[in-house]
Design goal:
Blueprint (H helix, E strand, L loop, with lengths): L1 E4 L3 H12 L4 E4 L8 H4 L3 E2 L14 H27 L10 E5 L2 H16 L5 E3 L1 H7 L9 E5 L3 E2 L2 H14 L3 E3 L4 E7 L2 E7 L3 E3 L4 E3 L19 E12 L8 E4 L2 E5 L4 E5 L13 H14 L8 E12 L5 E4 L5 E5 L9 H14 L19
Parallel strand pairs: 1-2, 1-12, 2-8, 4-14, 12-19
Antiparallel strand pairs: 3-7, 4-6, 5-6, 9-10, 10-11, 13-16, 13-17, 14-15, 15-16, 18-19
Helix pairs in contact: 1-6, 1-8, 3-6, 3-8
């Protein structure tokens, strides 16, 4: 029996791939599956890591950028298989994204975006102000510089959660919601069981820790391998994308703006190091709307549809923690920070390959817990 702690997109996708291989899998989820960081995500498929500008070829950040690029390429087949199995269209779109600058500092930042995309062979084009306004007439006329990333895309994370949940269960997986894992029982450096409020579940195969921002809160895991994860609060809101107010994703220093196929326009997100607080605040919403109205002045007239909060699981070096540990049977799949959606297909494949075949892929090695800063 494989036990997975955490029922977000990471845990569900790993569970689904393992059940397809004939493994017996139980997923333990503290609340409702996919209702935390997965539900809150903007779902952008836009590979980028600012730190790669001056990084060496073999640096962790370059490897993380490469992992995003590889995972993005897996998304079409991943989404299609989910659609065929469940009937749920996850709204995979590759319409491109815009970056815009409103002042000198943002121009420098956008130039850095262009340079690193060009350096790592990610398609990007400089646009004139007139070209940017032709693409998006509701942009402020105060923009000074713009770029276009034609291969950027998005999915609807809430539909991804729905599809993965159904795919996992249809494939024979067992999903125990409202069943928090309280403690991991380890003897002689071997995982033996997971203790919940209801029962003790024996682990005779592998235990995968995919609990996101709560991954270091489970008792029994030795400090030497417990992942160093802290929550980063992100407040997000949605307005009505009336009359195709915005057609392309916009990503920049003032936030991101994601027009959904459903007619919603997402505005995000704050970055707040405030622990496990999941309350929308007036200040957070004011910050989002203030920055948004700088970029898209007409947004102030659009109907407000929803506000919400997500807790991003941030590791000590901002990279995910993946793969086996020094505790036999304990496998990490956590710390995806704000890029969990784009990394979902490749994370699922890497972890499923290891759990099923003991295969430690080259793509996983840089992100294992024994790297510097990889765990506590």
């Amino acid at each position: 029996m494989v036990v997975i702690i955490g029922g977000g997109v990471i845990g569900l996708s790993i569970g689904w791939l393992l059940t397809k291989r004939g493994k017996e899998v139980i997923i333990l989820e503290e609340g409702e599956s996919g209702r935390d960081a997965s539900w809150a995500s903007a779902g952008m498929l836009s590979p980028d890591i600012p730190e790669v500008v001056n990084s060496q070829k073999d640096s962790l950040f370059v490897k993380l950028l490469e992992l995003q690029v590889k995972s993005k390429k897996l998304w079409p087949a991943f989404a299609e298989e989910l659609h065929e199995l469940t009937g749920t269209d996850v709204d995979l779109l590759f319409g491109g994204s815009l970056g815009v600058a409103l002042n000198e500092e943002e121009e420098k930042s956008l130039e850095a975006v262009y340079k690193r995309h060009a350096k790592y062979n990610l398609k990007i084009e400089n646009l004139s102000v007139q070209e940017a306004l032709a693409l998006e007439p509701n942009l402020t006329h105060e923009i000074r510089k713009a770029v276009f990333r034609p291969e950027d895309g998005q999915v609807e994370p809430r539909k991804v959660v729905k599809a993965l949940r159904e795919a996992f269960i249809k494939s024979g997986g067992k999903l125990y919601e409202h069943t928090p894992a309280r403690k991991v029982e380890i003897k002689d450096s071997v995982v033996k069981a997971v203790i919940t409020d209801k029962e003790t579940i024996p682990v005779n195969d592998k235990l995968v820790l995919a609990a996101g921002a709560w991954s270091d809160k489970i008792e029994g895991i030795p400090p030497s391998v417990s992942p160093s994860i802290r929550p980063m609060k992100g407040q997000v809101l949605a307005v009505s994308n009336e009359s195709n107010f915005l057609k392309h994703i916009i990503i920049g220093e003032r936030g991101y703006y994601v027009p959904r196929k459903s007619g919603r326009l997402l505005v995000g997100a704050t970055f707040e190091d405030v622990g496990y607080d999941t309350v929308n605040t007036a200040g957070g919403i004011l910050e989002l709307l203030s920055k948004a109205s700088d970029v898209l002045p007409g947004i102030k007239k659009l109907p407000l549809l929803e506000t919400w909060v997500g807790l991003r699981p941030r590791s000590s070096d901002d990279a995910p923690i993946l793969g086996p540990t020094t505790v036999e049977g304990l496998v990490m799949a956590t710390g995806h920070f704000h890029i969990g959606i784009i990394l979902t297909p490749i994370t699922a494949k890497l972890i499923a390959d290891y759990v099923a075949d003991d295969n430690i892929a080259e793509d996983m090695k840089p992100f294992m817990s024994d790297r510097p800063s990889g765990n506590a």
